[in-house]
Design a protein that fits this description.
By secondary structure, the chain is mostly beta strands. It has strands at residues 3-7, 10-12, 18-25, 33-39, 46-52, 57-59, 67-72, 77-82, 91-99, 103-106, 110-114. Strands 2, 4, 5, 6, 9, 10 and 11 form a 7-stranded mixed sheet that branches. β4 and β5 (46-52) form a beta hairpin.
């Protein structure tokens, strides 16, 4: 059974940085996409960044140039480095793993709060 465990959330002042990570466990096909989504209060969940196991990365326009997604395929872990954080980045951040032919899996979410 596939499980995703996130870590690294917390509170930070505007302009600060945070790094979150998500470790996957279980039987995972080597070709997959890992991603970060976020959901702010009263808003729909939105894609922040995604990265295929072969290395292609995509970002939401709102985070381009500030956030960087990376992966350690050997450790089945994905990271999100968040710099120049803004109050509008405040949300619960969810890790997602998509495996073609198998489905999508979600982490439990980690709260990121950007406030002075």
């Amino acid at each position: 059974q596939v499980q995703l465990v996130e870590s690294g959330g917390g509170a930070v002042q505007p302009g600060g940085s945070l790094r979150v990570s998500c470790a996957a466990s279980g039987s995972i096909f080597s070709l997959n996409t890992m991603a970060w989504y976020r959901q702010a209060p009263g808003k729909q969940r939105e894609l922040v960044a995604s990265m295929h196991s072969l290395g292609n990365a995509n970002y939401a326009d709102s985070v381009k140039g500030r956030f960087t997604i990376s992966r350690d395929n050997a450790k089945k872990t994905v990271f999100l480095q968040m710099n120049s954080l803004k109050p509008e980045d405040t949300a619960v951040y969810y890790c997602n793993l998509f495996i073609p032919g198998q489905g999508a899996y979600w982490g439990q979410g980690t709260q990121i709060t950007v406030s002075s």
